[in-house]
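On clarity, I found the account of how folds are encoded harder to follow than it need be. An entry of this sort, consisting of the sequence and the corresponding backbone structure tokens, reads as follows:
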Amino acid sequence: MKNSKNNQLKKSLGLSFGIAVLIGGTIGVGILRTPGAIAGMLDNYWLIITCWFFGGLYILIGANSYAELATMLPKAGGSYNYIKRAFGDYAGFLSGWFDYITNAIPPAFYCIVISEYSVILFPSLESYNTIIAIAFLIAFTFLHVSGVKNGSFIQQLTSVIKVVFFMALIVACFMYSGVKLNSFEKDTPLFEMGVLFGFFKSLQLIIGTYDGWYSVCFFAEEDKNPSKNIPKSLYTGAIIVIVLYVLINMAFFHVLPVASLANSPLAAADVAKVVFGNNGAIIVTVIAVFSLISILNAYMMIPARILFGLSRDGFFINKGTVINKGGTPIVALLVSSLFSLLLIVIGSFEVLFSFGTFMSVIVWGLAYCSLIKLRNKEPSLARPYRSWGYPWSTLFVIVATLALLIGFAYSDRKNFVIILIITLLSYPAFLLLNCNNKKE
């Protein structure tokens, strides 16, 4: 496959965008929902907090590896560039499309969830759910057609508002003193099989809630100074997210004991009702909408960058490399938006979304392996940032990722089989593309 150097993306982004897109692409409504599900599996306060720390440690060490990879190969599309360089064209093709599918599904999902929350705030709009979802998709498509700077500004603005809202909720929870928490310390044997199983199931949910932590790597080509900005963005953004997630859990369990929140479908709403009274649900809904708008903006930008990179390497149509005056990969954006529109209309994206995290973890694992491969294969390659603790830190995340994949395969066998089938079908598609490129 030939790698064209034409149609390079413009270097117009900086550190503040990198931090904002990581925060915006990570913190969604998951953190408002998952504490209840996790409390249902782990009825020990300290075990729950430890689980969130473990998830945070995993992504922090992952950020360490991605910082080296993204500064070594600062190209649009993120992970598949490193995997392709280390393991060849087919590995790049497969991981690139896995990553694209994983990141192209969320915009449809977020548009629909925004419309559902909008209906909660404005019940008269109940019959317009699909229209509202499509309107949000079209509005954000036009925003990003207008140029990268506008999308960057909205990302930074909405990410700041989101953090402020979450911090206000945390402070309000800790200031609340109306409930005595005699029951959130429970003597649960930590080494029973049921507890260990619950811990790892909870960890899978938590990793899903942290997903998006590497978002800045998709924009490495557009960063004015990737060698400095990407590591700073990865670490700063990841630490902010980890601290927020741990504090949110501590704040929720300060208001209500673990047993009260166990299996709650929207733990934040239950907590807000106690702290704010009848207006609690409305406050949580407003926070959820801002969280979703911020994460939607990030995920409108990410798939287009992956598709642009795939197109440039011959893994998609040549037109996918077209960039407009505003610096947006316009064809890649429109194709991705059309895909999202289709998913909104047919409403069957949920099946795809369920194995999106599975695919994402596969790509992470391959990216970590590519770091070791490239250290051995190309030791003289310029590395502006070197992963600390190498090779042990990288080996740790590889083993942790493998454990997650085994857990996913065991608990979600149907999607595991679907991914195996997609993998088998991908090779003939790769050969066909390869053949066509050689003819050209």
